[in-house]
Design a protein that fits this description.
The complex is a heterodimer of chains A (79) and B (700). Chain A contains two helices and six strands. By secondary structure, chain A is an alpha+beta fold. In chain A, strands 1-6-2-3-4-5 form a six-stranded antiparallel sheet. The longest helix of chain A has 9 residues. Chain B is elongated. Chain B is of the alpha/beta class. The longest helix of chain B is centred in the last third of the chain and has 35 residues. The termini of chain B are far apart. Classes of the chains: A alpha+beta (79), B alpha/beta (700). At the A-B interface, helix 1, strand 3, strand 4 and strand 5 of A face helix 3, helix 10, helix 11, helix 16 and strand 11 of B. Strand 5 of chain A pairs antiparallel with strand 11 of chain B, so a sheet runs across the interface.
């Protein structure tokens, strides 16, 4: 099986779509992220990626995240 | 508790939905009740109730619940929704029918909440709102299929145009609970068995209804909280079973925190795929480009401060014409009414007390309306959430996140809605800090004080050829309030309310054309509120103040000596030693005491005092009187530019608003925090003004 390359969402350039692999944060934060659509295998599109914040689109909604939160979302390229 | 399929007598209906799905607009369309519509998370923070008449003539109650993404009850706002649905609020009955508003352009995310509501077994009507936008975006929804799959009626609506409203009213009496199996979270077999066992225990041990038991079982199994926090509501036997379930889930290789959300989304994806066809294009949209600019780390701030600059410049420049008209109108009214009443106490009471006191405040109505026009526009277009997003960088420096910025920005209009908007903040400590510092943001009640003093004592010159000095001073006062708020937040975060910075996750609503109707409606509501206050509290205070500033009477003597002899003169002289270090005299002291109730009374107080002092029969504008007032001892002007700046600094930092104190008491459940807030802000105002005065004396 080929090895899947993993990134954090903060590392994804604007305009790229990725799949959520797993969440690595405090359980309460993970619960909130999942409820907003960031659950495992969901597709996310990165809209803008600034120096410490980014905007992404998940389930047709734009969500603004800071890097601390974005770093807890582990993603992989779209299969 | 929940109606059976056959017998459904409808009396109470509730509207639920995600933030920004147009829930409040639909509520307005259904009830005709007027209410503010915004599009950043958390605009609906109060209990909003209306009445609708059904087709059979029956009148039922409609409750607009705050926007929520789920029933997890993370923030106080979301807790209200759960409490109403589970019948935990005594004065609010459990709804008989629920209208679940779903953003038709965002079905996947909105269906998460819908699935939780369906799980509870309520009879539900789904309003597929913003259906026109979905069609424009080429999202095709097979409504018949959706209705069959969900087992509940689905009605396309465009709440802003009233489309679909009649259909909802027609459907309400016929609605029944979902006809489909209530298993929106079907777990893998071994986990499902454990889950069902727990549901059974909650029903038998804890006497829960089947639907509530299912919801509670999910909460217990997935909660990130310690099980001790459930001790008061769940029996020990059930809790020890939950602990065993945790171990069992781990053995089976299931993540108990994520398994329920994942299975719910699996159900949603299945429905979405079968009922919705959406044309996907990976192209960069115009919205992406706008977001890239307005949230840019440099341009974002340039645009934000540019917009604020335009806002304050406009408030000063455009509002001056209607303000002059209103002021002239009140002068004319004073003179006309004065001519009808023979000279004496009644003449003075009406002309110098009531008309000049109320007139001094009403003059500022146009500026307040311009402020609301701008803030409403920023909110309705979707920019406000972007402003909160970029401000997260600044707020992060003081340990808060961007979400706290929305209540602070709303507090520019009034601290009361600002403080209520803090209910969207999940972290209790951060919410408290935001409440404590929100009144430091310059609200519209401070505008009359600022603009009277700026117009009287700040020269109307241009800096760099295009920035007017008065507008610059005004924006500086707003920035001083903002800086003080951030500094105090930092101090509170480091001392009283220590805690780590919470994660920042903020929904950014789509850009929308602002609705002129909504904005005008909101401005109208604010005008009525402002005029009501002017007609009640300010009129009352003006009359009382006139009495206190006229009696006891002194036979002979100058008007100044008469005023000094009066009750109010004595009170002013009494506190003068305390405020003398700030460069204030006893007349300003009277203004500060009388405006403890609300800030704009300061202006009406000066209006009353100076009209009593004025020997001339004609009404002279307050501005001229302040400029002309001479200290009888030194012969120097009483009001200087420095005095005006000191008064403004005092008003930036001081609490001076009883309504805010009452709201803080309600929001924090006690007197501890409002008393603390009033004390720290008064101390801050005193120290801030003292420093300003000393520096001013040293420079000038």
């Amino acid at each position: 099986m080929p090895k899947i390359i993993m990134f954090t969402l903060a590392e994804i350039p604007a305009g790229t779509s990725v799949t959520v692999s797993r969440l690595e944060s405090h359980p309460e934060t993970c619960q909130r992220l999942r409820e907003l659509g960031f659950c495992e295998n969901a597709t996310i599109r990165c809209v803008t990626n600034g120096s410490s914040q980014l905007i992404c689109e998940v389930c047709n909604t734009r969500i603004g995240l800071n890097y601390t939160t974005a770093n807890s979302i582990i993603v992989s390229p779209l299969q | 508790m929940i109606n059976s399929e056959r017998d459904i007598s409808i009396q109470n209906i509730a509207i639920v939905g995600n933030p920004n799905c147009g829930k409040t607009t639909l509520f307005n369309a259904l009830t005709g009740l007027r209410q503010k519509v915004g599009n950043y998370p958390g605009v609906t923070v109060e209990k909003k109730e209306g009445r609708i008449t059904l087709g059979n003539g029956a009148e039922v109650s409609l409750l607009d619940l705050p926007g929520t993404y789920s029933l997890s009850a993370n923030s106080p706002d979301e807790k209200i929704v759960c409490d109403v649905l589970f019948g935990r609020i005594t004065e609010t009955p459990i709804p008989d029918v629920i209208i679940c508003v779903v953003d038709a352009t965002n079905i996947e995310r909105n269906f998460y909440l819908l699935s939780q509501i369906l799980d509870l077994g309520f009879p539900v009507i789904v309003a597929l709102n913003m259906y026109d936008v979905a069609q424009r975006n080429e999202i095709h929804i097979d409504i018949k299929k959706l209705e069959t799959t969900l087992g509940v009626p689905c009605i396309p609506t465009v709440a802003s145009k009233g489309i679909g409203v009649k259909e909802i009213i027609k459907t309400i009496p016929t609605v029944r609970k979902s006809t489909t199996e209530m298993h929106h979270t079907l777990l893998p077999q071994p986990a499902e068995e454990e889950f069902n066992e727990l549901v059974g225990l909650l029903q038998s041990n804890d006497k829960m209804q089947p639907f509530v038991a299912r919801h509670e079982a999910q909460t217990l199994l997935s909660t990130p909280k310690d099980l001790h926090s459930f001790k008061n509501t769940i029996s020990d036997e059930t809790l020890s079973h939950v602990r065993k379930d945790y171990e069992r889930f781990a053995e089976l290789g299931f993540d108990r925190h994520s398994i329920f959300v994942e299975s719910r989304y699996k159900w949603i994806h299945k429905i979405y795929k079968s009922s919705v066809k959406q044309k996907l294009n990976g192209q960069r949209t115009i919205h992406d480009t706008i977001d890239g600019i307005v949230t840019h780390r440099v341009w974002g701030f340039v645009i934000f401060f540019g917009l604020m600059g335009i806002m304050f410049q406009t408030i000063f420049a455009w509002a001056s014409y209607p303000m002059e008209l209103i002021a002239d109108g009140f002068d004319l009214l004073g003179n006309e009414v004065g001519a009808l009443i023979p000279p004496g106490d009644l003449h003075d009471l009406i002309v110098n007390g009531a008309i000049s006191g109320v007139g001094a405040v009403i003059t500022f109505l146009p500026q307040i309306l311009f402020l609301f026009l701008f803030l409403g526009f920023l909110e309705d277009t979707g920019y406000m959430a972007r402003a909160a997003f970029i401000m997260d960088r600044v707020m992060g420096k003081v340990g808060l996140h961007g979400k706290s910025f929305i209540p602070l920005l709303s507090s520019f209009a009034c601290a009361i809605p600002g403080i209520m908007a803090t209910r969207t903040i999940e972290n209790q400590r951060d919410r408290l800090i935001t409440i404590l510092v929100a009144p430091l943001m310059s609200c519209s009640a401070r505008l009359p004080v600022y603009t009277l003093l700026i117009a009287s004592f700040i020269p109307n010159t241009l800096i760099l050829g295009f920035i007017s000095l008065p507008a610059l001073v005004l924006i500086s006062l707003y920035l001083l309030g903002l800086s003080a708020a951030l500094l105090m937040a930092l101090i509170f975060k480091k001392t009283l309310l220590k805690g780590s910075k919470p994660p920042f996750i903020l929904e950014l609503p789509p850009y929308r054309m602002p609705s002129l109707k909504n904005t005008l409606l909101h401005m109208w509501e604010r005008s009525v509120l402002f005029l009501k206050r002017a007609g009640t509290i300010i009129l009352g205070v003006s009359i009382i103040l006139w009495f206190l500033a006229t009696y006891p009477k002194l036979d002979g003597g100058t008007p100044s000596e008469k005023l000094a002899h009066s009750f109010v003169g004595r009170a002013g002289h009494f506190i003068e030693p305390a405020i003398h270090p700030l460069g204030f005299d006893w007349k300003i002291g009277i203004g500060i005491i009388s405006s403890l109730l609300q800030r704009e009374v300061f202006v009406s107080t000066l209006g009353t005092i100076y009209n009593i002092e004025n020997t001339d029969d004609s009404t002279v504008s307050l501005r001229e009187q302040l400029q002309k007032d001479i200290d009888p001892v030194s012969g120097l002007p009483l009001f200087t530019t420095l005095t005006a700046i000191c008064i403004m600094v005092y008003y930036v930092l001081a609490m001076q608003c009883m309504s805010t104190i009452a709201v803080v008491k309600r929001e924090t459940n006690g007197w501890k925090w409002p008393v603390f807030q009033f004390s720290y802000m008064t101390l801050l105002a005193y120290v801030g003004t003292f420093i300003t005065y000393r520096i001013g004396l040293w420079i000038l």
